[in-house]
Amino acid sequence: MFSKKAVVATLLATSLAFTGSVTSIQPAPVSAAAQTVNYQKELNTFAAHYAKIFRTLEEYNAKMEKAKTEKEAMKIYDQYFEYLDKALDNTAPVEKLNKEIQKMDENIYNSLVKIYNYELDFVYYQMGELSDDELAESLEYMLDYVDAQDALFKKAAASYKTKYKVTYSKDMLYLLDQEADVKQPQPQPQTNTYKVKKGDTLYSIAKKNKTTVKKLKELNKLKSDTIKVGQVLKLSNAVSVSTHTVKKGDTLYSIAKKAGTTVSQLKKINNLKSDRIYVGQKLKLKK
Question: From which residue to which does the signal peptide run (predicted)?
Fold first, then answer.
């Protein structure tokens, strides 16, 4: 069963004020270096907490996409939804961090709440309680809200980094959508032809170039599967295909909107069985 409880983002920074009768003992001064270490440690704690949540959600989405049956996909979705619900309740790792991190925490937590509420709407849609238009409106509202919170989070993170001279951990770079900047593979140039090498077959060439033996034979007017070393073959991918690599926060609706296409068209050309996508997935935008 899906939880239908209302979720309210009320994560606030807590402060403890201590009073006592002993006033003669003064705390030892803390060096600037020690303070920087503490600010760095708290930022790392914050980043690790939320990076784990988002990565786990992405893993569930990837599993749903690879599910072979609708029943299997729904079972994984139940696990995804349950995990998100519990993640929202687990505020302990970040609730006592400094006030500036609490501001960043509020941005991300509020975004997760909006995602959770959209998932509730998706469940209601599956149950027939919401129309296509109502679900699309809920999705658009969620995306706009998350984008706004993400912008505030990135601004606060930049300010924190400058003020306290800290560095971004791998988890923090991930939350800031900068993980791809660490190792960005160079795109391979697309070619229109392929020169047959020793050991090649039409099947191996077709597989490498994401086409079929039938298409290769038609394109090159081959009457049989026989090919020769040094022979130049035309490839079916001679016409370039525009693609999009899914990033954190992307949905089929947001991608389709930016690309000037539709969700149904994206699902059709990418052979998707559902609206589920995952970070790092490459989607064709048009044929």
Answer: 1-19
Coil/strand/helix, residue 172: helix
pTM: 0.57
CA dihedral in degrees (228, 215, 274, 256; nearest 10)?
100
Q: Quickly tell me which residue has 């991918």 as its tokens.
A: 237
Burial 2-15 (b: 16+ CB within 10 A, else e): eeeeebebebebee
Distance CA 2, CA 121 (A): 11
Distance CA 24, CA 42 (A): 30
- From residue 156, alpha-carbon distances to 53, 151, 164, 189 in Å are 20, 9, 12, 39
Under CATH, which number does the domain 243-284 receive? Answer: 3.10.350.10
Cα distance between residue 185 and residue 221, in whole Å: 35
In tens, the pLDDT along 20-66 reads 333 344 544 555 566 778 999 999 999 999 999 999 988 887 787 77
Q: Which CATH architecture best describes the domain 193-238?
A: Roll (3.10)
Residue 103: burial class (beta carbons within 10 Å; 0-12, 13-18, 19+): middle
What are the DSSP E strand ranges found in the chain?
Answer: 193-195, 232-234, 243-245, 282-284
Q: Is 183 exposed, middle or buried (0-12, 13-18, 19+ CB in 10 A)?
A: exposed
Residue-wise pLDDT tens digits, 114-153: 989 988 888 888 788 988 788 888 878 888 888 889 999 9
φ, ψ (nearest 5 deg) of residue 225: -85, 5
